Amino acid sequence: MPHRIVDRFIGISIHVDCECGCKVILMKISEKLIRDVMTRGVVTVSADTSVREIAEIMTNRHLSGVVVIAAYGDMLGFISELDIVEALDKPDIRALTAEDIMSSRLIAVAPDATLRQAARIMADGNIHRLLILSEKGAGALQRPVGILSASDIVREVARAE
What we know:
It is a single chain. The chain has helices at residues 51-61, 81-87, 98-101, 115-125, 150-159, and strands at residues 2-6, 13-17, 23-27, 39-40, 44-46, 65-69, 75-80, 108-109, 129-133, 144-149. It has 5 helices and 10 strands, in the order βββββαββααβαββα. It is globular, with a radius of gyration of 19 Å. By secondary structure, the protein is an alpha+beta fold. Strand 2 (13-17) and strand 3 (23-27) form a beta hairpin. The longest helix has 11 residues, at 51-61. The strands form 3 sheets. It has a 4-stranded mixed beta sheet. Strands 1-2-3 form a 3-stranded antiparallel beta sheet, with no helix packed on it. It has a 3-stranded mixed beta sheet with strand order 5-6-7. It folds into 2 domains: 2-31, no CATH class; 34-159, CBS-domain, CATH 3.10.580.
């Protein structure tokens, strides 16, 4: 009778088939690299983009969030669907811009980090997505190349077996 042991935190799924001499098959979901799982391409908006315009971009492109950048290219924050929903509570949503509603708490990781590392950061920080930055080149600035969401990790777990 096969046994299945699953690490508490995504971890390693171990299938033990006692009838076949305890053959062990390891599926190392947690050791997959973020670059192999992340959603590629990051949509950015400037700090002065209106909330209506951001909502339109997110709706038309089927996005759950966008990165807010400064005129000089630095990343300032992130806007999620929830940020837009919460903006409805403000006096005049039509006057609000990205800078008014963004979360300035950007957590970024490298594409060669593992899903286990990403999952730990998400769980510890109670966050749902991580910004993935390009590798730093000689004199080059890191730029956003992808987003890893909790949904991306859940999808990987569902694909495993």
